[in-house]
Automatic annotation (TrEMBL):
It comes from Guillardia theta. Residues 19-181 form the Protein kinase domain. The keyword Nucleotide-binding applies. GO terms for molecular function: ATP binding; protein serine/threonine kinase activity. GO terms for biological process: intracellular signal transduction. GO terms for cellular component: cytoplasm. This is Protein kinase domain-containing protein. It holds the Pfam family Pkinase. It comes from the Eukaryota. SMART domains: S_TKc. InterPro entries: Kinase-like_dom_sf (IPR011009), Prot_kinase_dom (IPR000719), Protein_kinase_ATP_BS (IPR017441). ATP binds at residue 48.
Length: 181
């Protein structure tokens, strides 16, 4: 069953589970992420809708199930919280904290233009006029939060293999984790 074959294949099922679906806020090869509201309390969440038919064989489905369990075991203020996982024959519905920005967004919002004398690019670099930097104190604060989250995961024997600026700070993507033996 392809999602495109039905205008709103998830709407009624998710509504029955206590969520109201809103707009799509992300899309990947296995599915999409939608903004949603928890009916019980009005809290905004993200629901990652993963099409099982795009995952592959049963072993891949089992890998996702293990990854969900790993993510669920991580409870830290700087790691996206997994609220619950719902599924039917065709889809996983991963309900997690909604975060609305990434490292790039934060730098644009909180960064400042560097002094002109610090803009000394190498010959092959191009510096855009809208470049911004974080102060050392602010960068240190964010870096400490990132390190605290990674340290917590490592203490639980979990390694995140997909860290990049979009997953740092606010992307609800902790996929491709692996528990170390």
């Amino acid at each position: 069953m392809l999602e495109e074959d039905h205008p709103h294949p998830h709407k009624h099922e998710i509504l029955a589970k206590g969520y109201i679906l809103h707009e799509t806020i992300g899309q990947g090869s296995f599915g999409k992420v939608k903004k949603a509201t928890r009916k019980c309390c009005g809290t905004m969440v993200a629901i990652k809708i993963i099409d099982k038919s795009r995952i592959g064989d049963i072993q891949d489905v089992m890998r996702y199930t293990r990854e969900f369990a790993i993510l669920n075991s991580l409870s830290h203020k700087n790691i996206i919280h997994l609220h619950e996982i719902l599924q039917n024959d065709h889809f996983f519905y991963v309900i997690m904290d909604l975060c609305t920005g990434n490292l790039h967004d934060i730098i644009l919002k909180e960064g400042t233009k560097p002094p002109e004398d610090e803009l000394d690019p190498a010959e092959d670099e191009v510096v855009t006029p809208d470049v911004k930097i974080l102060s050392e104190d602010l960068a240190r604060s964010y870096f400490r939060q990132i390190i605290a989250a990674v340290e917590h995961a490592h203490k639980k024997l979990v390694v995140h293999r997909g860290s990049h600026d979009c997953s740092i700070i606010s992307n609800a993507d902790m996929m491709f984790t692996r528990r170390q033996a």
